[in-house]
Amino acid sequence: MTNAFVAAATPSGKYAKFKTVGDSITLKITGKVTERQQREYGTNEPKTFPSGDPIMEQLIPGLDLNAPSEEEAPTVLCVDKKTMRAAIGKALIEKNVGEPQVNGTIKVTFSGYGVGKNPSNPPKDFTAEYWPAQAAAGAWGGDN
Fold first, then answer.
1. If residue 79 lies in a helix (H) or strand (E), which one and from where to where?
2. DSSP of 98-141
3. Which residues does the annotated region (Disordered) include (predicted)?
């Protein structure tokens, strides 16, 4: 279900890609995390579990800190894999944060392949680091 309201609320920018082991992205988070139902590749039909429950993905909008230019910096990290979600969760737990926050920084790296049901298509493994946004200092650099 796409309408003008949903389209306007969906983060824009290129989507982060993890094609090769070692690929990583470091994002300065620019907006709130949003969630939507995943779509089947090719048909664009909504993905569901065998129970009929929707399979969801999270979108984290940000600026790629390693982009070659400012125009190429807007990027969306699509968290659609269980292993990526778990890696980000561990990074957030380490910083005692419930979810990625605006102005925080997140780095996600494709670290290798795991073991799955289909040996010819193993799941991707990820590592993640998170740095919370720095608290704003007072006008004179203190806590005033």
1. strand 74-79
2. SS--TT-EEEEEEEEE---S-TTSPPEEEEEEEEPPPPPP-TTS
3. 36-56
Share of the chain above pLDDT 90, in %: 67
pLDDT at 135: 57
Report which of 85, 92, 91 is spatially closest to residue 123, judged by C-alpha positions. Answer: 85
Query: At 77, is the secondary structure helix, strand, or coil?
Result: strand
The residue behind tokens 């309408």 is 3
Asked if 107 and 25 count as a contact pair (C-beta separation under 8 A), the reply is yes
- Short-list 102, 84, 80, CA closest to 32: 102
Domain ranges of the chain: 13-30+62-131
* Closest listed residue to residue 131, CA positions, set 22, 12, 29: 29
Q: Are 26 and 66 in contact (CB under 8 A)?
A: yes
Burial 14-46 (b: 16+ CB within 10 A, else e): eebebeeeeebbbbbbbeebeebeeeeeeeeee
pLDDT digit string, tens, across residues 59-75: 999 999 999 998 899 99
CA–CA distance, 50 with 27 (Å, rounded to integer): 34
